[in-house]
């Protein structure tokens, strides 16, 4: 089992940047594929980015591709999401998720979730 804690959210102006962090507990972090999802008010939770256990496979949603970078350090039990050129439509609660199986973009495949961190982008 793994516990996830996100941080790094906040209020930023459009065009700004944020770096979200997700710290995982446990000694088997390297066994999990990791992902970021987000959920805006009144909308379903949507995929943002995912990274495989060895960082060999990475996926991005079209909405963030070219503006965001997902990375991980298995020695630090941490995954990051660097977001640049933020837009008001990026406003949402961002969730970190972990899955023991192969990396995927589907939220239904992820077994463990953090509590979320709020990102608000003002225009």
Please write the string of helix (H) and strand (E) elements.
EEEEEEEEEEE
Q: Determine the structural class based on helices, strands and strand pairing.
A: mainly beta
Percent of sequence in beta strands: over 45%
Please mark out the parts with pLDDT under 50 across 5 or more consecutive residues, or reply none. none
Largest sheet data: 7 strands, mixed
Total beta-strand segments: 11
- How many individual helices? 0
Question: What is the residue-averaged pLDDT?
Answer: 96
Radius of gyration of CA atoms, rounded to a whole number: 13 Å
- Looking at the structure, what is the overall shape? globular
Helix % is under 10%
Measured distance between first and last alpha carbons: 40 Å
Describe this structure as you would to a colleague.
The chain is an all-beta fold. The protein is 0% helix and 48% strand. It is built from no helices and eleven strands. It has strands at residues 4-7, 10-13, 18-24, 33-39, 46-51, 58-60, 68-73, 78-83, 92-99, 112-113, 117-122. Strands 2, 4, 5, 6, 9, 10 and 11 form a seven-stranded mixed sheet that branches. A four-stranded antiparallel sheet has the order 1-3-8-7, with no helix packed on it. The protein is globular and about 40 Å long. The model has no long low-confidence stretch (mean pLDDT 96).
